[in-house]
Amino acid sequence: MERDLQLDNVGRRYGLRGPWVLRGIHLTLAPGTLTRIEGPNGTGKSTLLRILARLDAPSEGRVKGRPRTAYVPERFPSALPFTAAGYLTHLATIHGLTRTSAQRAAADTLERFGASSYAHTPMAQLSKGSSQKVAVAQALLAEPELLVLDEAWTGLDTGARAELERAVAERTTAGGAVVFVDHDPRRLAGATDAVYAVREGGLARRTTPVASEPAVTGPHVVVEAQGPAGGRLPADAHRTASTAEEPHPGTYRLTVPASHSDVLLRTLLTSRPPWHVVSVRHETPEGGR
Amino acid sequence: MTALLRYQAALLVRSQRWLPPVILYAVFLGVGVQSGQPILDSLGYAAAALLPVAAWLVRICVAGEPPAARACVSAAVGPARAHLAALLVALAGAALLGTVATVLVTLISDPVSSDHQIRVPRVPAGGSGLLAVLACALLGTAVGALTTWPLLRSPGRAVPTMLLAALLSVVVTGSPAHAAVSGLVTGSQQGTVPLPLLPLAAAAVVTAGALALACTLTSRRSP
């Protein structure tokens, strides 16, 4: 339970008599959940994320829980006197890794985001997108219990964007909480557990309208899988999939957000006894279901 | 904390921003200290000149890390500890610089009193100078911590305040740095080696308070 992060009637203002940026915020981030925060520019989304990452202390109210946290800022400076790999190695040791595993984690994460080629380039020479990859990589080095993403996708190339979505899926499956702000309404659509809107300094939970907003579903993957005789779909697979049908006894057709397809396949293939994956195909949201 | 200190130290060393204050200190010493001068006078001068340099090093360590990079580190370890690491690295840098200067000054100065009449033992004088240098490094760190983010942000106000506070800490009676330095000067006139333990302890207490205040405010001020 102590891995929950809980905001209790939290308010924040800058200066002793400044206007309230946020007020009366109640929010709980439970392990394994994905939370989206939305709202127009300048409403205090970033301030809320800074409070969740415990970078800012609330001016009133309380924050309870202290999960191991990683934070990706909106804009990441390249004005650091390190190489990309050197910086990530430092950050990994700060996150608690030993020196050897820190170096390995730095190399692995850079490779994951297609950034190995500039691992040894000084950060001052990196492009905006490349330094954003380093910013994302530093947050994923040490498997944080809480991942706070402030428009982390901005500036990433298509491959890295999809990779970050998959990384988020992995984190939540492994029991970490993820909270994010992004301007693309389709970002991780269909995978979020809760959506909150910051409005006039307050926070309102948005109950996701299913019928009225059909556009807000991201790309999906349909997985057909066969279980052992009389086997039931593993509970984890049930949770990951957005829909599960059983066209024939023992055969399941599972629809899953594209970001979560790897997680689903891993669950099926590593369950005991293992499931057989018959087919995997991509389904565009416009494809009509 | 070790990883954090290593990161901050690497940030300071690689940024090369430490060069101007170190050169300034070298110039201070080059102007004010010559071989063959009375040892305690020169040690007092070396200690007093270190105070503004220590404050400047703090400014470099705190302002040298971009806010977004600081946020990444702060999320992992908490903003207070991240800030403390920067301050401690600056203090260690100032202490190292002061120690090197003390050793050099001790070696090249004449072990005599101001009027060149009484002999002053070289090694105890050097030890006494080291304590004074540490007191000044501590107090300079306190001045730096109180005149940079999160307490003062705009450089237009912060830098003059820092310089004024550094100057006052050396010259105002009652300040531990002033006590340590004037102890050396008086000792030189009388031909006795002082033991500035009390000023050092006072400087440590003042600095601990200043660092605690600065670290507490990190999460309360805007980045």
Describe it for me?
With about 290 residues, chain A is of the alpha/beta class. Chain A has helices at about 45-50, 85-95, 100-110, 130-140, 160-175, 235-240, 260-270, and strands at about 5-15, 20-30, 35-40, 60-65, 70, 145-150, 175-180, 195-200, 200-205, 220-225, 245-250, 250-255, 275-285. Chain A has 7 helices and 13 strands. In chain A, a hairpin with a 6-residue loop joins strand 1 (about 5-15) and strand 2 (about 20-30). Mean pLDDT of chain A is about 85; it is low at about 210-215. Chain B has about 220 residues and is an all-alpha fold. Chain B has one domain. In chain B, helix 3 packs antiparallel against helix 8 (about 175-190) and helix 5 (about 80-110) packs antiparallel against helix 6 (about 120-145). Chain B starts with a helix and ends in a 6-residue tail after the last helix. Chains A and B meet through strand 5, helix 2 and helix 4 of A and helix 1 and helix 4 of B.
